[in-house]
Amino acid sequence: MGCHVRISGGLVKAVNRAAERGCETMQIFASNPRSWTHSEISPRDISMFRSGCGERGLSPVFVHSPYLVNLAAPVECTWGRSIEALTKNVEAAEALGASAVVTHLGSHGGMGEDFGIGRVIRALEKVLSDCHECVPVLLETTAGSGKSVGHTFTQLGEILEAFEGEDLLGLCFDTCHAFAAGYELRYPPGIEETLEELDREVGLERLRLIHANDSKGDRGSRVDRHQDIGEGYLGLEAFEYLVNHPAMRHLPWILETPHMTLEKDRRNLCLLRSLARGL
Predict the structure, then answer these.
(1) Is it true that the peptide bond before 60 is cis, omega within 30 degrees of 0?
(2) For the CA atoms of the chain, what is the radius of gyration?
(3) Is 241 a catalytic residue?
(4) pTM (predicted TM-score)
(5) Helix H or strand E segment including 85
(6) Is 94 a catalytic residue?
(7) Which residue of 103, 149, 185, 186 has the smallest Cβ count within 10 Å?
(8) Residue 166 in contact with residue 128, Cβ under 8 Å?
């Protein structure tokens, strides 16, 4: 279990922040998440980051793509920039020794679900062909606000089905996003039904990472607003069941809860760990 940590001040600072929080795994941005500009990482910083993670026992490490990435974009300029940005993040993740890159899929901009899914598939085909040495790309479940793609397992399954047998694509399950999209995660029967649908439409073997976030919005609200563990509409009982579920207990769990202060991150991480039995 671990947290998303800031890289302000340099990548080595991110390693130190993760260690201070008691992380076993971590997630970072490899560049400014709100800019198309991708600064190259120096060999020295790469070496220090990799050795720091090794010394602190931080593994696996995940890179999250910038917020601007929109693989479903109808506008060619945005679509092309998104492909380039994701490709550069995959290359950076490989250099840093990360295990995967997590990405949102974006919005079809009113062109329709089928259009958006087709754009995502073609974008991913290009990213995988352009990266000579690839780490896996994990498609993150979304809350379904606006005209986004990726808030149903059916959509995600259709995308991943186009890459059948491709180990370089997987799924990141965000608890807040899935709940806001309408999946019932508060009670055991609902969780079982949700995971059965995920297995049927996507395949549990594609599930590689959990983003652990409570939700400020109610079920089906389509509101992407994270909350501290146990303080949102999901509640502690939901996380206790999820974190001990056979389909999820062996996976890495990354917190993306609000504030990201040392105190808050430690509290959320300790609370999540306390719910896990026999880990």
Answers:
(1) yes
(2) 18
(3) no
(4) 0.97
(5) helix 76-96
(6) no
(7) 186
(8) yes
